[in-house]
Design a protein that fits this description.
473 residues; single chain; Growth Hormone, Chain: A; 0% strand; globular
Length: 473
């Protein structure tokens, strides 16, 4: 449900722009506010799950998320929708760390890859359900129903979690509230400055916000190093190289996930004239490959070197995204776009679940919540920055290629009638996709630094004991 709400809003973007009289930048804030509220508390909610029980934090978060979804659907202004999405993000931040922490605790390291494959396949399902359901609901009932749909799902999820999710042992923790404040202020200043920069013509106060955000985040890291009690982010976690590399990789994927949907959905609806449902179908081949390959990749994750698995994943994703950016023209046949999406989907299947499994294999059980919180927080930091950056890039490319044109007016139209303007709009969206292309390159370089896992069973099929492989890697 959390991941569906990231993708479902993207499809409804042009409709929300038109019905709430909003700008592209404001509608991007509908997702950015959600992701920022999701990212900031996620470090402390993972620790709260360790202290008071993952099951109970999950149930509280699910309740907040479901009620906030009702609020989102009842709003009539873009500003109130953004506020409701902030509350929804707070609910999501309570839920997500608990899912990964529970999997880490109840599955042994040697089998965790298979469990993470199921967890990762859920993301693939959300990538299918989100855009398609968003398109169908927006076309048939209105954009409000992309939020109302969460209510029955939330109620069913609450009943199932109450009955079926185990109540695991808890651990004593102190809470680093100064760390929470520093990380929250730093992320907000950085994200707000980046996203509003183009709209505010990079005024001095915007630059000051960005610089201030970097400084505050630097102070946050310094405080984490000096906090002798229990820091919000135990920096000792990063002594494990695979945990550190996985956090870089998932930050990249968070940025990709938050940035690629907007240009594609705006291109499909404003240039091709697709309905929201038709536009959403562009994403289906990518998501289907993630689902179909989940089981196979899960088995490989427990046996093969993560460098090989994720290296292939990032390389394939790069090829698919680059071909999509090159092919994004008004007359591009649908099958050509689908081929690119299939390649991206294959690559993503070799990234999402293997990265999560590799990140958490070596963590002590008492740090399961903290490690899960850090991992999910870095993903959300990537999402926040990716969302802010894509808003800037789209707005700047539209301004450069269509001088004097209103991004709000162009994107909110059913279809741009002027073929010349449509071609220029298409070029602007294609140029914007070079952001996720570049992010895949960063991810590929990062995963080259993985070392061989140390869990029991690794390397058995290769005829070498795990300890020997690790020592010689």
């Amino acid at each position: 449900m959390i991941l569906v709400d990231l993708t479902i809003v993207t499809v409804a973007t042009p409709t929300i722009i038109g019905e709430l009289d909003a700008s592209v930048n404001q509608v991007v804030w509908v997702s950015s506010a959600y992701m920022l509220a999701y990212a900031v508390p996620i470090l402390i909610t993972g620790r709260l799950g360790d202290r008071f029980g993952s099951k109970y934090l999950y149930l509280i978060g699910l309740t907040v998320f479901t009620l906030a979804s009702l609020w989102c659907g009842l709003t009539s202004t873009i500003e109130m929708l953004i506020v409701a999405r902030i509350v929804q993000g707070l609910g999501a931040s309570m839920m997500t760390p608990q899912t990964l922490a529970i999997i880490t605790r109840i599955f042994p390291a040697s089998d965790r890859g298979k469990a993470m494959a199921v967890w990762g396949a859920t993301a693939g399902v959300a990538m299918v359900v989100g855009p398609v359901l968003g398109g169908v609901l927006t076309d048939g009932l209105g954009w409000e129903w992309i939020f109302f749909i969460n209510i029955p799902v939330g109620i069913l999820g609450f009943v199932m979690a109450w009955r079926l999710v185990p109540a695991l042992e808890t651990h004593e923790h102190s809470f680093d509230w100064l760390g929470v404040a520093l990380s929250g202020v730093g992320l907000f200043l950085l994200a707000f400055g980046i996203q509003e920069g183009h709209d505010k013509h990079w005024a001095g106060w915007i630059i000051a916000m960005i610089v201030g955000g970097v400084v505050v985040l630097g102070l946050f890291v310094l405080w984490q190093a000096r906090n002798k009690r229990e820091p919000l982010v135990p920096l000792t976690l990063f002594r494990d190289r695979n945990f550190s590399v996985s956090n870089v990789a998932i930050t990249v994927m968070g940025g990709v996930g938050a940035s690629m949907g907007y240009p594609i959905m705006l291109y499909a609806q404003a240039v091709r004239g697709d309905s929201p449902t038709e536009a959403a179908l562009l994403m289906v081949p990518m998501a289907m490959m993630s689902i179909l390959l989940a089981r196979t990749v899960g088995g490989l994750t427990d046996r093969l070197h993560p460098r090989a698995i994720m290296g292939f994943g990032f390389a394939a994703s790069f090829v698919g995204m680059l071909s999509l950016a090159i092919d994004l023209d008004p007359d591009t046949p649908i099958w050509a776009l689908w081929i690119s999406m299939v390649i991206i989907g294959v690559g993503n299947a070799f990234i999402w679940a293997p990265t999560a499994a590799t990140a958490t294999r070596n963590l002590p059980m008492q740090f399961a919540g903290a490690g899960s919180g850090v991992y999910n927080a870095t993903r959300q930091v990537g999402s926040v920055i990716g969302s802010a950056a894509i808003a800037v890039i789209m707005a700047s490319r539209l301004s450069a290629l269509i001088p004097g044109a209103s991004a709000q007016g162009e994107a909110g139209a059913d279809k741009i009638p002027d073929p010349h303007v449509a071609a220029l709009f298409s070029d602007a969206m294609a140029d914007s996709l070079y952001l996720p292309v570049a992010l895949f390159v960063v991810g590929f370089i990062a995963v080259l630094f993985y070392e061989a896992p140390k869990h029991a069973g690794f390397g058995a099929t290769q005829g070498a004991p795990a300890a020997t492989v690790s020592a010689t890697d």
